[in-house]
Amino acid sequence: MDAWRDDFSARAMAAGNDRAIVKSLLENISPITLWLGQTDLVQTQTAPSDQAEFAKPIWDYLATPLGATRITSGQQKLAALSPTLQAIETKYGVDRQVLLAIWGMETNFGGFIGRDDAANALANMAVEGRRRTLAESELFALMKILRDGDARRADLVAGWAGAMGQTQFMPTTYVAHAVDFDGDGRKDIWKSEADALGSAANYLARSGYMKGQPWGIEVLTPEGFDFSLADGTERRMESWVSAGLSPIRGGAFNTGGADVAELWLPAGASGPKFLLFKNFNVFKTYNRADSYALAVGLSGDMIAGKGGPVAAWPTHLTPLTVADIKDLQSGLNALGYDAGTADGIAGRRTKLALQQFQKARGFLADGYPTKELLAAVKAGGPAIN
Ligand code: CA
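^ thats the input. predicted complex w/ calcium ion below
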């Protein structure tokens, strides 16, 4: 750590950073045990390693974000911060329930903003080595924050991975998007709710958020629907309507002007099915997992009183283990379907390969991995039913 600090400090100063700022940022760094591999937090950043581990079903992932505690807290914040949220919505054009949802997802509305020093967390990441370039560029961003006077040295509190404040901005995100919404001269995303929410709104607005457009609409599919259309391709709303999709809550589609959408089946044909719009992808600038964006979308709707998913999740299906999914991926690859690296994560590429297999073998082509499909892929032969 000392060797890294000497080297990095020299490079930071050669790049024009003031010695006093570099020193104040790095003088008190010390090893954090989790970066030495003593907790499983680091492992969540890589592929799951436990062969017996079940891939977490999406309904388990959604349980906390859509739970009564989180939604009720969100609704209380929505009421308590109404004037601030109105001002933010007017300035940035981001719907308030989306800000509440992200704030809830990131820190439970400011309840858990982390206890580490951002510089220390990032220095540990740099020393650990796998993400050194990223960690060092984030440390350069911290230097800029101090140089510009946007925050004080003692303000820079972060979670273990270096994300800061109530809306968990990495330092580079802070430099690019944080705002002083309450006008006190500092961009205080740690203690000022207005600054944190205004900053999140600014970030979403610059990422292309479209006010008044849905992130997604839960749909009904007609009998005999071709689920292979849920392939990640955006299609025009007219083509979805002519394919027989309709809003599960009834009536006509109200897309606020959005004219293209993709069909997504987070849990296959027997779970809730969604048309996704541009705003869903904007949520993914915060966290690129589809499950995260779905949690933001659904919890925002529920905080706004619009209700959650209507269709039931297929909780009766036995979840596959990580090892099962690796087998499925290897099997699909061996059959000539491109499931990508057998990493045990059933991502979009795996689902697409599975859909192609399902379609070729006469299964419902929903891309949802089940024990039955795993057996069929392993058998390699024609469809078993
Ligand atoms: Ca401020």
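Confidence is low (pLDDT under 50) at residues 38-51.
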